[in-house]
Amino acid sequence: SQTIHQWPATLVQPVGSPLSLECTVEGTSNPNLYWYRQAAGRGLQLLFYSIGIGQISSEVPQNLSASRPQDRQFILSSKKLLLSDSGFYLCAWKRGSTDTQYFGPGTRLTVL
Amino acid sequence: AQSVTQPDIHITVSEGASLELRCNYSYGATPYLFWYVQSPGQGLQLLLKYFSGDTLVQGIKGFEAEFKRSQSSFNLRKPSVHWSDAAEYFCAVGAPSGTYKYIFGTGTRLKVLA
Known about the structure:
The complex is a heterodimer. Chain A contains no helices and 11 strands. Chain A has strands spanning 3-7, 10-13, 19-26, 32-38, 44-52, 55-58, 65-70, 73-78, 87-94, 102-103, 107-111. In chain A, strands 2, 4, 5, 6, 9, 10 and 11 form a 7-stranded mixed β-sheet that branches. Chain A has a 4-stranded antiparallel β-sheet with strand order 1-3-8-7, with no helix packed on it. Chain B is mainly β. In chain B, 0% of the residues lie in helices and 51% in strands. The N and C termini of chain B lie far apart (41 Å). The model of chain B has no long low-confidence stretch (mean pLDDT 92). The chains are: A mainly beta, B mainly beta. Chains A and B meet through strand 5, strand 9 and strand 10 of A and strand 5, strand 6 and strand 10 of B.
């Protein structure tokens, strides 16, 4: 069976510090990978998605970037965090273009 | 433009009462349709999905949803709500022709009164 991991689960960072959130998927190959953000009381905002190694599509221009160094690894980064980057970050995957999307447990990021 | 609307931001029901959460979509064709549930501080869990066929779909935890093409709706229902159903519920759509992205509604937060 497939599983998706995210770490860390919780993170508190000062403004201006760098960020690296990691997502890995087990039990499948060549998944489509996604990063979403949920701000407090808000819905899901798609940030990035990737259909293959090194292929990143950005949905919203912002302070964040994403990379996919390996087939089942998806990383969300920032060089300098802003207060507005606080939120709940969710990674998701699905097999192909017509399939169900499955979510990881999320990372709670607080920028102070 | 494609969109998903969940008109109810908050819903409160008593335990044991029936539940219906609304979802309307705007799409050029019949999309793939999903309902997810999110407990506080956790990821989203798939409740059910509709791709084709029978328009009444059964899911986990006693939930069901009905696809109504004429109303562009995919409402989620449960005949008797349990306190553990308190969570946020998201409707989502995807294109049957194949898309890498799904569109999510803004969610409905369900509160259950004992």
